[in-house]
Amino acid sequence: MGEWWTTVPIESSLGNFDISSISHATMSPSKQNNLLSMYSSLSLSKSSYSVISAFCTEDNIPQCISYINQELASLGLSSTCIEASSPGAAGLNPVPALNATYELLQIHRRTMCSLEELEREQLKKSSTLEHVQMNNSRLKDQLELSIREKSGLHEMERQLQLKIKTLQSCLKTEKDEVQKLQNIIASRASQYSHDAKRKERETAKLKERLSQLLVDRKDKKLAIDVLNCLGRSDGKRSHWKTAKAAASHEGEMYKSLLSDYEASQRSLMLENAELKKVLQQMKKEMIHVLSPRQPSIRGATADDSQEQADSDLEDRAGDSSRGSLDKSCEHAREQLTNSIRQQWRKLRNHMERLDSQASQVQNQLESNKDVISRETHEDEMERMRREVQQCKEFIDAQQQLLQQLNTSFDDETAALLNDCYTLEEKERLKEEWRLFEEQKRNFERERTNFTEAAIRLGREKKAFEEDRASWLKNQFLNMTPFTDRRRCSSSDGQSALSIRSEPEMRMSSSKVQLPKSSTYTSFSTPKPAPSATVPSTTELYRTLRLIPDPSSTRHSSHGRWHESSTIEDGESQVKAKSRLRCGDLSIFSLGEDENSLT
Amino acid sequence: MNFSEVFKQSNQLCKVSPDGKYLATCVQYRLVVRDVSTLQILQLYTCLDQISHMDWSSDSLFILCAMYKRGLVQVWSLEQPDWHCKIDEGSIGLVSSRWSPDGRHILNTTEFHLRVTVWSLCTKAVSYIKYPKACSKGIDFSRDGCYMALAERRDCKDYVSVFVCDDWHLLRHFETETQDLAGLEWSPNGCVLAVWDSCLEYKVLLYSLDGRLLSTYSAYEWSLGVKSVTWSPSSQFLAIGSYDEKVRILNHITWKKITQFEHPSTINNTKAVSVCKRSSICLITYCQFLLLPAPDEICPLPVQIPVVKPDPDRANPKIGISSLAFSADGRYLATKNDNMASVAWVWDMQKMNLVAVLEHTSAVKCFQWDPKHPRLALCTGNAKLYLWSPAGCVSVQVPAEGGFQVQSLSWHCTGDSLILLGKEQLCLCYMETEQEDK
C-alpha cells in the first residue's frame, strides 16, 4: 500500500509538465477520496483517542449520542439509532450501538475495498500512462533525431550547392580561359601564316634570283654526257610538240577518263542489277514470310489444306510481284520502292510484335531466373506446406505408434521410453533447480543485509530515543508549570516532533530510498548511507514500505519532485535491469523481504 | 625457308630489277649487278663517288646512280656495259633524282627545290619545271606511266600540274584548296589524284584527272591532321592515317568515310583478334611457312599494349599512323602507330575489323606485303625476320654471322624471296613454295 502511495506522485511527475498536470487531474478524485478516508480515519482515531478526554464525558453522553446519531443519519444509517440505555443514565443501549458500529465497520470495509480497487486501477492507469509517456519520449527522441538528420541534410545540401556554385564559377572562368586561349591561338595562327607568307615570298624572290644568277653564269658544268642517244622505250621516234599533239593528249586523257567512268558505270550497273535481284528476292521472301503468317495470326491452325492454299496464294503473290518488278524496271521505280517499303513496314511490324513477344518471354524467363516469380514462389510454398503437412502426419503417426508401443509393449520398454522422456525433463528440472538455488542464495544474502540494516536502525532509534528523552527532559526542565502536561507529552509533542522532523524525513527518505532502489536491482543491500539525522521507527518502517505513509501524501505536493526523481531513477533502473534479468525475481525478492520482516 | 650468304652493301642501296631477274647493290662507289637466281655477279660498274641513290629503269635495262653531294647522276646500261651517261647538275646542286616511267628520262630536283630538270636520254634534251614544291611527296607518276602530277608553289598558293610523261606536255594546271600541300598520290587506276594538306590541317582533296575537285574530306579541325595516305590496290578505298591514332577509310563512290580503325592501347573484346607477342625465343623453321601454325605466343585477351607518350613540346610528335600498307589482293591493311612503335596492326578490309596485333620486343622498322600472297614481312632491327599470314605468324633467326641486324626488307616481285638489308650487309631469304617441294 505504501508502495502505491509513493508511486502516485512519481507517475504524476514523470515526463513533462502538462502530462503531469493531466495525471494530477485524473488522479485528483481518488486522492481526494483517499484524503477523505484518511481524514476520516484520522479523525476517527483522534476521536477514539480523545473520547476519553474531550468528546464524551460522563456529562455529555446524550449530546454525544445525539451528535453521533446525527452523524450516522448524515451517513445514511438512519435506521439504527444509538440510544442511551436509560434516559439519564450514563450507559448505552448496546444493540443499536453495536449495529451502528457494525454498519460503520461495513462502510469502512467497503470504502477500503473500493479504495483498493481504485488504487489498483490507478496503478494500471499509471502503468499505461508510463507506457504512453515512454512512447512519447521515444517518439520525441525519434523526432529530435530526424530533425537533426534533416538539419544535417540541409547542411549537406547547402554545402553541395556551395560547391556547385564554386564549380560553376570555375567552369565559367575555364570557359573564359578557353575563349582567351582560342583567341590567342587564332591571333598567333594568323600572325604565323602572315609571317610564313612573307618568308615564303622572300624565299621565292631569292630562288628566282639564284636561278637567274645561275643561268647568267652559264654554268658550264651543267651538262649531259651520253655515249650515244637511246631509242625510245616504245621504239617510236619522238615527235614535236604541236597543237595536234596537245589535242591528242587531251583526247587521250578524256578517253582514259571516259573508260574509267564507263568501267565504274559498268560496275555500278552490275551492282545495281545485283541489288535489284536481292530486292526482288527479298520481296518474294517477304511475301512468303508474311502471307502464311496471316492465317496463323488470325489464330487458324495450319493444316495441309490450308498450307496448300497458302502456297497457291504465295505463288500468285510472287507472280504479281515479279510483274510489278518488271514493270518497275521500265517505268515505275517509285511503285516498286513503295511496295517494298510497305512490305518492309509490315515485316517490321510483325518482327516488332514477335520481338516484343519474345522479349516478354525472355523477361519471364529472366524473371524466373533472377527473382522467383509469383507462381513458382507459390508453387514452392504449396510444396513446402504439403511437406510440412506430411511431416506433421508422419510425426502424428509416430506418436501414435509410440503410444501404441507404450500401451502394448511390456513395462520394461515403457519404462525405457519413459526414462527417455523423463531424462530430458530431469535435465530441465536440474537446470531450474540450479537457478532456484542461486536465487535463494541471493535472497539469503539480501535478508542478512536487511536484518543487519534493521538492527542498525534499531540501534540508531534507541540512540534517538535517548536523545529525545534528554531533550524532553531539558524541555521539561526549562518549561514552567505542569499545565497541558498530558497533551504536551502525548499529542502536541508528537506533532511538534513530526513537524520538526518533516524536512529531515524527506531528506532521509530520499537518502534511504536511493540505496534501496539499488537493492531492488542488484539483490544486495548495501549499508544505508549514514544519515546525519536519526530516523524514527515509523520512518524505518516507511522506508521499508511496511506501513502506509500518511505524511507522504501530505508533503507529496511539495516534496514530490525531489522524491519522484530519485525513485524514478530507481524504477528506470529496475526496468532496465528487469529487462536483463527476469522481472518476477525482483518482485519475489520484495515479497520475501516483507515476509522476513512481518 | 633458306637464306643466302651475306653480301656487302652500303647506304642500304639494294634493288631487284622490275623484271625480277637482277639484283643491283651499291658498295661505296661501286655498283654490283647480280643474277637473282644464282647470285653471281653479272656486271660491276664504278661510279665517280659514293652512291647516295640508285634506281632501276622500268624496263630493267638501265640503272641510275645519283651522287647528291657532287650533283652528279650516272646511268649504266645492263645490255651495253660500255655505254655510259653522266649528268652534271653543276653548282645548282641535286637533292633527288628519279626515272620517268618510260625509262628514257631522268628527273632531277635541284637544291632549294629551284626547279625540276628533265633530262632525256633519247635526245639529250633538257627541260625545266619551275617552282616545284618542297614537300614529302611532291611528284607522283600514275601507275600506267602516262601522267605525272607535280605539286607546285607559287605566290604562297599550292598548284598541281599534271604532265603527260610522253612528251612532258602540261596537261592540267590547277590551284588546290590547301593551306600547305604536303603530298599527292594517284589512285592505282590513274583517274583520281588524292592531295592532302600538311599536318596542321586535316584536309584530303580528291581531284579528277582533268583537274576537277571531286571531293574534300576533313575529319576534324585544330588538331594535327593527316600523317599518311594510301590507296587500296583496287582504287576502291583511300586509307588516311592521322595523328589522332586512327585510320579512316574512304570509299571511291561518295568519298565518304566507311569506317575508321582505332588503335586502342588495350585490346579486349574484339572477337577474332589474335595478338602475337614475339617472344625472344626464336624458332628456326625450314618448313612451309604458309601452312605453319602460329608458333609465337598468342596472348589471352585483354592485352595491354605499351604506349610511349610523345613529348608535346617537340615538333613532329611520335604519335599517329605513320605507315599504311595494303596487301596485294587488297584484303588486308597493315598499319603502324608511332606511339606504339613495337606493334604492327593488321586489319581485314572485308570484315572491316582488326585481325591481328603483332607485338614485338623492339620498334618495328619496316614492313612490306608479299606482292603475290597475303603475307606480311616485318623487321625490328634485330637478327630476326617476322612474317605474318592469316594462317599464323612466325619469327625466323637470320642465320648469319657477325650480328646481322635486319634494318629493312623488300620482297622480290614474285614473292618467292625476300631481300633483307642490314646495316652494311644484305642477304636473301627464299620462301620455299609447295611447287618447289613437289
In oligomeric terms, what are we looking at? heterodimer
Please tally the β strands of chain B and state the result: 41
What's the end-to-end separation of chain A, in Å? Answer: 14 Å
> Which strand-content bin applies to the residues of chain A?
under 5%
The largest beta-sheet of chain B arranges its strands as 29-28-34-33-32-31
Low-confidence stretches of chain A: 1-51, 296-328, 483-532, 547-598
| Largest interface in this structure | A-B, 42 and 48 residues
The general outline of chain A is elongated
Percent helix of chain B, as a range, is under 10%
* Poorly predicted spans of chain B: 279-296
Individual helix count of chain B = 1
Give an account of the 3D structure.
The complex is a heterodimer of chains A (about 600) and B (about 450). Chain A is about 85% helix and about 0% strand. By secondary structure, chain A is mainly alpha-helical. Chain A starts with a helix and ends with a helix. By secondary structure, chain B is mainly beta. Residues about 280-295 of chain B have low confidence and may be disordered. Helices cover about 0% and strands about 45% of the residues of chain B. Classes of the chains: A mainly alpha (about 600), B mainly beta (about 450). Strand 1 (about 225) of chain A pairs antiparallel with strand 10 of chain B, so a sheet runs across the interface. Chain B: This is WD repeat containing, antisense to TP73. Chain B: Pfam families: WD40 (PF00400).
